[in-house]
Design a protein that fits this description.
elongated, 72% helix, mainly alpha
Length: 109
């Protein structure tokens, strides 16, 4: 059986230990989230109409995928779904802003 992400959680005895570990994860997560948001700009550039920004079918596909992955990694699927739904709402709002900005600048097709 392969190792799950939950198996990588270190035993902490103090809040300083917990915060150090969380900070180390944030150092990995933030660059990935910045990269992910860059793809929202790409999507805003590619989509032809603003009503395409919010894609309910895609949202559900992502939720289904991350819930399955969370379970496989030993995590709580409901927690991961909630995090992703919040993140997707923020990304959708960002993509709407990018959609408008790109068209205002004439950078979209």
């Amino acid at each position: 059986m392969s190792k799950q992400a939950m198996d990588n959680v270190q035993h902490c005895t103090t809040m300083t230990d917990v915060r150090r570990c969380v900070d180390a994860l944030d150092d990995v997560l933030v660059p990935l989230l910045v990269q992910r948001s860059g793809y929202m700009t790409q999507a805003a550039r590619i989509k032809q109409a603003e009503n395409q920004v919010r894609d309910e079918a895609r949202i559900q596909t992502i939720v289904d995928r991350v819930r399955k992955q969370a379970l496989a990694e030993g995590g709580d699927p409901a927690v991961i779904e909630s995090i992703y739904r919040s993140m997707m709402e923020v990304c959708i709002a960002f993509e709407h802003r990018e959609f408008a900005r790109l068209r205002q600048q004439g950078d979209a097709p």
